[in-house]
Amino acid sequence: MAFGQLPNDRYLLAIESTCDETAAAVLTRDGKILGECIATQEELHEAFAGVVPEIAARAHLERILPVIDFAMKQSGIEPKSLEAIAVATHPGLPGSLLVGLAAAKGLALAWNKPLVGINHVQAHIYACGLGRESSIFPCVGFVVSGGHTTLYRCESATQWHYLGGTIDDAAGECFDKVAVMLGLPFPGGPQLSKLAETGDPTAISFPRPLLDQPTRLEFSFSGLKTAVRYHIGGTGKQDWSTCDLSETQKADVAASFEQSVIDCLVGKSLQAMERTQLRRLCVGGGVAANRRFRTQLETACASRGIELIVAQKELCTDNAVMGALAWERIDQNDFDGLELDVQPGLLRYRDGAVPT
Ligand code: KG4
Ligand code: ZN
C-alpha cells in the first residue's frame, strides 16, 4: 500500500474497536495510508478460546489512545489538518464500541472536528475497493467474518439491501469452534486452515446445509459444527480439553470441514449472483483471508464471467483503514453530532437493508 504525503490533500482519522482489535489510521481522500496502528488482543482471550467482551472492552480502554497517538505521529499530520474523525459505531460488542466512540468524541471535541459514525459491515465491503481506480458498486457484497455471513445487494457504498445471511452461527465463528474441538490455539480460523493444508478435503463427508435450496439465500453452520463434534467424539465425549485423534485424522477433519464451509460460501454467492443478475461480487471479512476459499471462489467466478473482488488479505480482518468509507459521507457534508451512539446488534435489516 502506498505511503507518503501529498500537499493540499484531505485527511481523515479513522478508529475501529468493534471486537478485539484496537485500530486507528490516518487516510487521505485519494486512498493513501499515512499512519496505521492495530493492537491485537489474542493473548488476552486465548485462555477462554473466544473473545470475552468485558476483557476486550478493558483492553481497548488501555490501548485506544496510544494506538491513535501512534497512527497520528506516523502520519506526520497535525490534528488541525484533519477533516473529520470516523469511528465504527455498529455492529459490534457494546463495551468495545463504546470505547472507540468515547475516544472519537473526546478528540472531536478537543480538536473541534466533525464526527462520522460508520457501519463496520459496510466498511468490510468498502475495503474491496481500496486501491482501485474504479468504483466497485453496484455489486453483490458478501461479508464473511466472525460475526457475519451475509449477502447484500449494494447499490452504492451506503445504499444496501439485505439478500440473506446465516440463521445461526457465522462462518468464522464455526471455524473458531471447530478449531477448539481439534485442540488448536486461538484464534482458530487461521490455525484450522493451516492444518487443513495437510489434510484430505474428501476424507469425510460433512453436510453442506441449505446448499440444495437455491431459493433460500441463507446459511446454517450449527448443524455442521455438531456433525464435526460427533465425528470427533461420538455422542458421549465430555472432556474437550484434549483431542484423541491422530495428527493425520485431525488434518483430514480440518480439510473436510473447511471444504464444507467453502462449498456453502461459494454456492450461495453464486446463487446470489443468479438472483440479482449483477456481474460483480465483492467479498470481505476475516474468513475472506482463507486461501482455499479465495482460490475456489476465483475459479467459480471466472468460469461464469463474474468479476470477483476480494479485499486484500491484510484488509480482510478488522482494521481502521476500511474506515475510508467515511469519505462517502464527508463528501456529502453528512456528519454526526456528539449525540452519536453505538448500535451493537447485528442489525440485519438496518440501513434500508430489507430482504428482496
Ligand atoms: O472480520 P474479522 O477480523 O472480525 C469480525 O468482524 O468478526 O473476522 C474474524 C474471523 C474469526 O472468526 C477468524 O477465525 C476468521 O475470521 N478467520 C479465518 C481466517 N482468518 C481469519 N477463518 C478461516 N480461515 C482464515 N484464514
Ligand atoms: Zn469485522
Can you put this structure into words, describing what you see?
With 356 residues, the chain is α/β, with parallel strands linked by helices. It has two domains: 126 residues, Nucleotidyltransferase, domain 5 (2-Layer Sandwich); 180 residues, Nucleotidyltransferase, domain 5 (2-Layer Sandwich), CATH 3.30.420.40. It is 37% helix and 18% strand. The protein contains ten helices and ten strands. The strands form two sheets. The protein has a five-stranded mixed β-sheet. A five-stranded mixed β-sheet has the order 8-7-6-9-10, with helices on both faces. Helix 5 packs parallel to helix 7. The site of 5'-O-[(R)-(carboxyoxy)(hydroxy)phosphoryl]adenosine has 20 residues, from helix 5 and helix 6.
Q: What distinguishing features does this structure have?
A:
356 residues, alpha/beta, 2 domains, binds 5'-O-[(R)-(carboxyoxy)(hydroxy)phosphoryl]adenosine, single chain, Nucleotidyltransferase, domain 5, 37% helix, disordered C terminus, globular, binds zinc ion
The spatial strand order of the largest sheet comes to 3-2-1-4-5
Percentage of residues in DSSP E strands = 15-25%
In the CATH hierarchy, the architecture of the largest domain is 2-Layer Sandwich
- CATH topology descriptor of the largest domain: Nucleotidyltransferase, domain 5
Low-pLDDT regions: 1-6, 347-356
- Helix proportion: 25-40%
How far do the termini sit from each other? 37 Å
| Total separate domains | 2
The topology string of helices and strands comes to EEEHHEHEHEEEHHHHEHEH
- Secondary-structure content class: alpha/beta
Count every helix, treating DSSP H or I runs of 4 or more residues as helices: 10
Bound small molecules, deduplicated: 5'-O-[(R)-(carboxyoxy)(hydroxy)phosphoryl]adenosine, zinc ion
User: How many strand elements?
Assistant: 10
Q: For the residues shown, what is the average pLDDT?
A: 93
Q: What's the CATH H-level homologous superfamily of the largest domain?
A: ATPase, nucleotide binding domain
User: Mind summarizing the main beta sheet?
Assistant: 5 strands, mixed
- Overall geometry: globular
CATH class of the largest domain: Alpha Beta
Please give the radius of gyration in angstroms. 20 Å
